[in-house]
UniProtKB/TrEMBL annotation:
SMART domains: AAA
InterPro entries from the UniProt entry: AAA+_ATPase, ABC_transporter-like_ATP-bd, ABC_transporter-like_CS, ABC_transporter_ATP-binding, P-loop_NTPase
Segments forming domain ABC transporter: 17-251
PROSITE patterns to which the protein is assigned, alphabetical: ABC_TRANSPORTER_1, ABC_TRANSPORTER_2
Pfam families attached to this UniProt entry: ABC_tran
One example GO MF annotation: ATP binding
Entry-linked PANTHER family: ABC TRANSPORTER ATP-BINDING PROTEIN, ABC-TYPE MULTIDRUG TRANSPORT SYSTEM, ATPASE COMPONENT
Gene3D superfamilies membership: P-loop containing nucleotide triphosphate hydrolases (3.40.50.300)
Protein name, entry field: ABC-2 type transport system ATP-binding protein
SUPFAM superfamilies for this protein: P-loop containing nucleoside triphosphate hydrolases
Phylogenetic lineage: Bacteria, Pseudomonadati, Pseudomonadota, Alphaproteobacteria, Rhodobacterales
Recorded superkingdom: Bacteria
């Protein structure tokens, strides 16, 4: 789908988006206090990646996305999208990016095909280069191509938003909370489409509150908190930042004494399992097992659990 040739890719290196010193301040007029939504963000998003943009509510994610989409004017800084400086080439930079918004902002009297055709016209896509039927097939709406949008289910409308973001064949696709409130079937279809687009070379930027989704889909992640990037790394490296582990022991019989050792915190679950929490850089798994044996506990089953992206997120955004 991303077939825009002749675009300003030269000199952009390996990044689809480059952001330097990006600031956005709201208010401050008529004696009102100003709110700094973005506080000098520096961020590179590699070409061809599935890049997660995470953060709590009010962190600045939506402001950043709206600046990329050309919907909000930045206060300071530089943004380059697919090699185009947003200040120097605003039309080309905007044409390089497609955004699937959170809000279901569809005209109820347009059909899906009509909505795609109008959107393509707004972007100046010549009729010969439009791929409305191909997009309808991709999003699973070919059988609803001529139905009024108001007759579509909520899930179908969300798919149509994805289609509208693709009409101008962008190199970069931004998905802003794409699966919020949708059912499992639609979520699976959406991610299948995203994987297909990414395999074709499209760069995907994802914001989501479903951290397990980001952990599964994204190869790189930036976490924003209070208008600043507090972490930016590969998903694997971010998970490696927190070495908290848990060993879950299922004893043969109920223990009379709980394991005790420096660096180990023990919890007992309702099903009788013991959870021994420890940090790998301080305590080895062998030391944990030794503490279990010293307490006279015979093990029926054992497994270990490692930190997930939610642990990293909470650790980095904790005030």
């Amino acid at each position: 789908m991303s077939d825009q040739t002749g675009r300003g890719k030269s000199g952009m290196g390996d990044n689809a988006i480059e952001i330097r010193g990006l600031r956005k301040t709201y208010g401050g007029a008529k004696g009102q206090p100003a709110k700094e939504a973005l506080k000098g963000i520096d961020l590179d998003i590699p070409q061809g990646s599935v890049f997660g943009l995470l953060g709590p509510n009010g962190a600045g994610k939506s402001t950043l996305i709206n600046i990329l989409a050309g919907l909000v004017t930045k206060t300071a800084g530089h943004v380059t999208i697919w090699g185009f400086d947003q200040d120097v080439n605003p039309r080309q930079s905007r044409a390089s990016i497609g955004v699937m918004p959170q809000e279901l902002n569809l005209d109820p009297f347009f059909s899906p095909r009509g909505a795609l055709e109008v959107q393509a016209g707004l972007y100046g896509v010549p009729k010969a280069q439009r791929k409305s039927d191909e997009i309808l097939a991709l999003i699973g709406l070919e059988d609803k191509a001529d139905a009024y949008a108001r007759t579509l289910s909520g899930g179908m409308r969300r798919r149509l938003l994805l289609g509208k973001a693709l009409v101008h064949h962008p190199h970069i696709l931004v998905l802003d909370e794409p699966t919020a409130g949708v059912d499992i079937e639609l979520r699976q279809m959406l991610w299948a489409n995203v994987r297909k687009l990414n395999e074709q070379g499209m760069t995907i930027i994802l914001t989501t509150h479903y951290l397990e989704e980001a952990e599964e889909m994204c190869d790189q992640i930036a976490i924003i908190n209070q208008g600043e990037v507090v972490a930016r790394d590969s998903t694997a490296n971010l998970l490696g930042r927190i070495d908290a582990k848990a060993m879950v022991i299922h004893p043969e019989t109920a223990p009379t004494t709980l394991p005790q050792a420096p660096g180990i915190v023990v919890e007992q679950r309702a099903d009788g399992a013991l959870v021994l929490n420890y940090h790998a850089h301080e305590t080895s798994a062998e030391q944990v097992l030794e503490a279990v044996r010293n307490a006279g506990i015979r093990i029926r089953d054992v497994k270990t659990e490692e930190a997930d992206l939610q642990d990293v997120f909470l650790e980095l955004t904790r005030s």
